[in-house]
Design goal:
By secondary structure, the chain is of the alpha/beta class. The chain has 10 helices and 8 strands. The protein has a single domain, classed as P-loop containing nucleotide triphosphate hydrolases (Rossmann fold, 3-Layer(aba) Sandwich), CATH 3.40.50. It starts with a strand and ends in a 6-residue tail after the last helix. The structure holds adenosine-5'-diphosphate and zinc ion.
């Protein structure tokens, strides 16, 4: 099974995609996490993508698709994947469709998490992320302790979560990524989910729509 999580920055894609992957026994591929980890390591990929992430613009398609397709070819992805942050424009969506087609696979569902603009800006400006495992944290208990509950890593504010860059990322989202909503709607794959409210509530909404489509049978 192949599922894409779609939504604006701050919509909760990362958190929800990771939850869904666990629940469905699939592997999550998060392009943004892969880029940030490469930047932390300071390797070649990290050096190549650093400026784009800092500016809040898209990493060029050639780099992004190579990284994602390569990741998809590893054995743990054979049973299926939950994509978080990829595809982010029409070109990437087409490349993904073609790559899956070559393996006789298709995208089964696209979960589109819908959140209002004011809520997005508020969430992004408050968010902290684990430097090691990239788990995001909203305002809450972990926040004050400053440590990741999963791996003990240090929590930090992403350099692209400042107001100017957030505005740029939202602009990029509406211009380049939002057209994917139509693209997937046309193929009948779009599952729209209300993303306002707490993590657990949104999780339940998502589980609900996936269960209806018999992705989750329990
Ligand atoms: P968010 O959804 O909060 O913006 P991500 O971690 O998904 O965060 O992405 C962070 C940054 O990584 C993006 O602003 C962009 O620069 C880069 N990026 C991530 N995924 C892609 C992609 N599929 N194509 C191009 N750039 C990407
Ligand atoms: Zn962590």
């Amino acid at each position: 099974m192949y599922i894409v999580f779609l939504g604006a920055p701050g919509a909760g894609k990362g958190t929800q995609a990771a939850n869904a992957a666990r629940e469905l026994g699939l592997t999550a591929i998060a392009s943004g996490d892969m880029f940030r980890q490469a930047i932390e390591r300071g390797d070649r990929l990290g050096l190549k993508v650093k400026d784009y992430l800092e500016k809040g613009v898209l990493v060029p398609d050639e780099i992004t698709t190579e990284v994602v397709l390569e990741r998809m070819s590893s054995p743990d992805c054979r049973g299926g994947v939950v994509f978080d942050g990829f595809p982010r424009n029409l070109k990437q969506a087409e490349v993904l469709d073609e790559a899956l087609k070559r393996q006789n696979n298709i995208i089964d569902w696209v979960v589109y998490i819908k959140v209002s603009d004011t809520e997005l800006i508020k969430r992004l400006s408050e968010r902290l992320v684990c430097r090691k495992c990239q788990t995001p944290y909203g305002k809450g208990a972990a926040y004050t302790e400053g440590k990741c509950q999963k791996c003990g890593g240090e929590l930090y504010q992403r350099p692209d979560d400042n107001i100017e860059t957030v505005k740029e990322r939202l602009k990029v989202y509406f211009n380049k990524t939002a057209p994917l909503i139509e693209y997937y709607k046309k193929s009948g794959k779009l599952l729209e989910v209300d993303g306002e409210g707490g993590v657990d509530k949104v999780s339940r909404n998502i589980t609900g729509v996936l269960r209806k489509r018999e992705c989750i049978t329990r």
